[in-house]
Write a structure and sequence with these properties.
This protein is an alpha+beta fold and about 160 residues long. It is built from four helices and eleven strands; from the N terminus they run E-H-E-E-E-E-E-H-E-H-E-E-H-E-E. The protein has helices at about 20-30, 80-90, 105-115, 135-140, and strands at about 10-15, 35-40, 45-50, 55, 60-65, 70-75, 95-100, 120-125, 125-130, 140-145, 160. Strand 8 and strand 9 (about 125-130) form a beta hairpin.
Length: about 160
Amino acid sequence: MEKPVFPQLLQICVVVPDLDEAMRTYNDVYGIGPWHVFEFNPDTVSDMYIRGERVDYSMKLAICDFYHVQLELIEPTDNHSIYAEFLRTHGPGLHHMAFATDNFHETIERMAARGNQVVQSGNFQGNGYAYIDTLKDLGFLSEIYKTPPGFEHPAPVRVYPAGR
């Protein structure tokens, strides 16, 4: 192999049944925070797909920068997403890792050639994302982004703990 498929780890995600409880535990017990909360739903995300079909889904998520890696907590707020499937099947836990990639579309094609298909995707206010089924190879899903130059993350709907 000439170069790695995923040159950098960007994020580790845990799916949780209760976002507020999880943020309290991470922050108040383990000192991991502050958390920036966002809502992903048809009002904030376009081009939502699950396994190639157009499907609306929604979730609340919180992100935190932790030693140069972003931690993410996701609480599904409907039963349609791969996060809801994960909670039903496995309970809370490690869901995916997000990686940098040199070329979003080439990475999707390269993974598809291995049989690793995109299982969910969307576009959060200009930042495209895709989850690739790397379970058989890596034991977790992999997420990649298609971030346009100059993209600025929107303001969170709230921060926990407040004032940080």
